[in-house]
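Input.
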Amino acid sequence: MNASTTSATMSTTAHRIAYSQLPPGPLEKAARLLRWPLTLAAILASLYLVFMVHASGQTFWALGLLALFAAFFYVYVSKVAFAARYLFPGIAGMLVFIAFPLVYTAVIGFTNYSSAHLLSEERVREYLLEQRDAVEGQVQPFSLHADGAEFRLVLRDAASGEPRFVSSPLALRKAKGELKVEMRDVAAEPLPLSSPLQAALPLRELITHREALSQLLLQMPGQADTLHYLGLREFGPIRRYWEAQPDGNLKRLADGQLYKPNRDTGFFESTAGEQLQPGFKVLVGGQNYARMLLNEDFRGPFLAIFSWTVIFSLSTVLFSTAIGMLLAVMLNWEDLRLRGTYRTLLFLPYAVPGFISILVFKGLFNQNFGEINAILDALVGIKPAWFADPLLAKIMLVIVNVWLGYPYIMILCSGLLKAIPADLYEASALAGAGPLTNFFKITAPLIIKPLAPLLVSAFAFNFNNFVLIALLTDGRPDYLSSKIPAGQTDILVSYTYRIAFRDSGTDFGLAAAISTLIFVLVAAMSLINLRLMKKANQ
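Output.
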């Protein structure tokens, strides 16, 4: 290090020391003063959110939020974990948006979660115990009357409409929780003249007090039963359908029949096997996975769909790579005129939104009115049934997907071709090699190495290409011999969607098991492909 460099370094250090010794400015002072109050407020807000989640009955969610907030404040408040401040957002995002959905999906795959088993056992029990009905013949109409700042509730005779019972003044706006109200018999104890009833509130104003009225329990003179709010015009006694037993069973009050929670089937069941709806979620272990592999009705279409998914993904990647690489090599030819125009036209399928192109192709392949069949009919006199024949439908899917995918490969190869040294082609020309030799001996080997990871990602994308299947064929035509709805052009992800949300009663547990299997298969095949390519490139 020379003298000038040493002098400059010492001067910079001196300036830094002098700057650090300057008194803080107004903004810095304000930031220092507000730092800990704002941090404390954020901690309290986070704890309140965790408490609210726990109070709603979601204990595991509350623990997860608590761990996330604790890690956040430890990293950004403590000086010990200063270096982790740059890594924490990425790690937290990966855990929240990638790891957690994967784990949650895998857990659902071990349950019977479906449209018939949406709730927990405790929530189903509460739902059944809340079932009740009004006692016919004892329902009484009512009206609400203003009494200064308060209100009076009047029960009227159903036939004559005359007042029969009246309440003391009620402050409805302040009512919180159930409120027991003693009713006065007008015939036995007439209203005092000092508090005459005013006109009944119209329906519009009555609706505004509906929530407060629903909290009232009317105690009638000389009666043990209380009247409950039944609607905008009626109060009446209710009878419950079920009664909880100390052993966890439910007793039907109408006939005394007992129903026991069956944690194998997820239903409250009687001794005769009668099941109450709705069911509740239970762990079923590997039943969903066993159903995929061992159930004959399920295994047949599943294996066929899995095979077609692999063929669809591989053929799309192979044809897209071949076409895209060929076009990139042709457009790299310097003597080709109007290269920019060709490149723009060939890039258009990638620039147009995919769902628009798919719907356009759906019209072009229409058997009766599509342009493709019109051309084929004029040339060779045939009109293929693209959507009815399984083989033609699969060919159509590959054609459309290759059309959508080749521009991506073409752009990648165009960039990679620029990195190939021109000296290699000059030496090849001196050796008398032709274009095909240059392509297979120089271009393809040098392109395929950096392109390999992108081809693996393209394979994984097409393995889960739900949009193409849903918009073009919707998985049709269906397997006619299968008890579980399945289409011959379905891939695993569209098949999972049909099971989870459409054709078989929203079986989320089975769909989650298939999704987990898809993840394992894609991950395994991607790792195998990467390892094979790595060995081939060594």
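DSSP finds 18 helices and 14 strands in the chain.
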